[in-house]
Design brief:
95 residues, mainly beta, two-stranded antiparallel sheet, 9% helix
């Protein structure tokens, strides 16, 4: 799906997620979690795998978008979450 971040939508997605330009490449998916608080949803500490230097305390990305982390162990695909392929620059269906 997402071939690279060189498209305007790819660059905007990187910016919105607080990622550096060029961080997004290769295939990408969106994971929709039905009940994140039922899976230990909490404000990130900044010590999680994948935290980057732009991490800020308070549960929001650098652009102000809220974020949480969850415990994914034991989650069942199709029941607890759905995986949706993303194609940058293509329209997407609204669930």
């Amino acid at each position: 799906m997402c071939k690279d971040s060189s498209t305007p939508k790819g660059l905007k997605l990187e910016h919105n997620l607080g990622l550096a330009p060029g961080d997004l490449s290769g295939d990408m998916v969106r994971i929709d979690i039905d009940a994140p608080l039922a899976h230990g949803g909490r404000i990130p500490s900044g010590n999680e795998a994948g935290a980057n230097p732009q991490w800020e305390p308070g549960g929001h990305l650098p652009t102000g978008i809220p974020e949480i982390v969850i415990d994914s162990a034991g989650m069942i695909p199709g029941t607890d979450y759905d995986v949706i392929g993303i194609v940058i620059g293509q329209p997407h269906a609204t669930p």
